[in-house]
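worker-03 picked up job from queue 'complexes'. Input manifest follows; two sequence lines, order preserved.
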Amino acid sequence: MKTLTVSVVTPDGPVLEDAYEMVSVRAEGGELGILPGHIPLVAPLTISAVRLKKDGKTYFVAVSGGFIEVRPDKITILAQAAEQPSEIDIDRAEEAKKRAEERLEQTKSEDLDYKRAKVALDRAMNRLDVSNK
Amino acid sequence: MASLRDLKDRISSTRNTKQITKAMEMVSASKLNKAEENAKAFVPYMNKIQEVVASIASGNIDVDHPMLNSRPVKKTGYIVITSDRGLAGPYNTNVLRKVYQDIQTRHQSKDDFVIIPIGKVGRDFCKKRELPLGKEIVGIPDQPNFAEIKEIASYAVDLFADEEIDELNLYYNHFISAMTQEVTATKVLPLTDIETGSGSVTTYEYEPDQEEILESILPQYAESLVYGALLDGKASEHASRMTAMRSATDNAEDIIDDLTLSYNRARQAAITQEISEIVGGAAAQN
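worker-03 finished. Artifact:
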């Protein structure tokens, strides 16, 4: 089966580089499934899980935003933070979730702090989600 | 001539200083290693983001984004990267001198610019001269990771986006080798000249469209420029401190050698004097 190389890169260094059969991501415009031979594409990602399929198994990577660059035989995911399930610090994510929830209760919805807390909550939930898979 | 005891004290205190500088040199050497690794790990990310930004920016002329356009400059922002601690040789002095000179030549009034100092030395420098300060950032760890730096970078980028400042400059020491670092001044925003880098530019499809992508990618690009400079600055800091401490150790060695020589000379002189006193005394008795 045809494969495409996927590399996930963050400012702190590469997270993963391997060949996969299919990649699904949640872009800002909606879900994208990418197979080998896709036309070159750039799309921003939401805080979500990237799914990588190989040999009937699905692997997950949690990304905190960033974007995806697709070429026919290569995909690069650039994110400011990205983790594989084994790398996720569950305690830290739980704590971040709690903190964000508290802050959401205290602040009003139009505050800048509210937006920040929302994003922080999304990130924490995403990490917890991925670590459970 | 100093007494034997004075010389002995000075030798032992110089030896203690030498031990400390030697230890600091070794600490800095290992931190430098780590800092170089960090800087290397960052390169793939930077290259890729630059490639994508360049291909969007060059591929289509009618893309427009406030960060790409220069506007009349009413207020300039300066990010100055210095260290929290001294004893780093000319590291801080060089970069601060350059900023100070540039500001003096470019601006008449203190309302025309704002400085965002990173590191205690830079902050204290600006406070002493009463230069206008934005947010001040101290206590950056020796091995910063992106999450810790993001806040600083977004703060500066937001200032530009909110039209608080119309230009953002970055002053730091560029790491060339362990022996050489060079003060570098770059303009981060507006992004007028994006390097196309090497290799061919690919034409992409954009999902949903170019404007949306620029909206999310340009701030990230600007932030990574700041982060890159910070990693570069950290590597320079450790290199500079290592070199400074090495020459301090060498100097201490020279001083110890000199002092040991004078000590031996003084000791010999004392012995000679004692002998001649005994001989003189014996001769007087006969």
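worker-03 released lock.
Residues 210-285 of chain B form the longest helix (76 residues).
Chain B is about 60% helix and 10% strand.
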